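Reviewer comment 2.1 asked that we show a complete input and output for one of the modelled complexes. We chose the guanosine-5'-monophosphate case, as it is the one discussed in the main text.
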Amino acid sequence: MDESGIRRRGLMLVLSSPSGAGKTTISREILKEDGNLILSVSATTRPKRPGERDGVDYHFVDESAFRNMADSGELLEHAQVFDRYYGTPRKPVEDALSAGRDVLFDIDWQGTQQLSGKMSKDLVRIFILPPSQDELERRLHTRAQDSPDVVKSRMEKAADEMSHWDAYDYIIVNEQLERSVEQVRSILTAERLRRDRLLGLEDFVHRLRTTG
Ligand code: 5GP
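Response of the prediction step:
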């Protein structure tokens, strides 16, 4: 809190895109330089990819552990993506928001829809599109962490994922990484200033207007 006494509710910044549109890279860049933003680390039943770390990129769990988390209400949302389960642990998000911190979510359209139903006031939804279909395919191939079959299936799923673009507040076409990162930062800056996220404004303005 500063001299004004104005505080702010944390916001939930959702980034969705088909795989290969560059969302993970954009998220990393934003997180690196924004001390008030934390990443929501999802639980998933999919196998770890090379270079991924448990507890950092995901909480890697088996299906029965995932089911337990879902059944006991530990997940804020959960969905099946590519035959695997993914979900957002509730507690870290609630703790961060009440401490005035913002949380970044790298989740799909199904998760976004569930959060929209529950916490729409706190949500800022950004959808990232690739600049072209060719470029999307190229990025999926050069990433080369998945087998050709998986790449093919992800291209098909991308078309499905992209059909949900109109459930988002902002659209970014990720042609150039730096520009997209700048655009996400601008959205974050503006959304943090929204009147309805600010607490203590009335008192502050009252003091400003009181003479003597
Ligand atoms: P990947 O396996 O490539 O890391 O992620 C596959 C898809 O699952 C991505 O679209 C990603 O945004 C989505 N995803 C990751 N974590 C979650 C989650 O907790 N909930 C939902 N609904 N989707 C997620």
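Helices lie at 23-33, 63-71, 90-98, 109-119, 133-143, 148-162, 177-192, 201-209. We note this here for comparison with the apo prediction described in Section 3.2.
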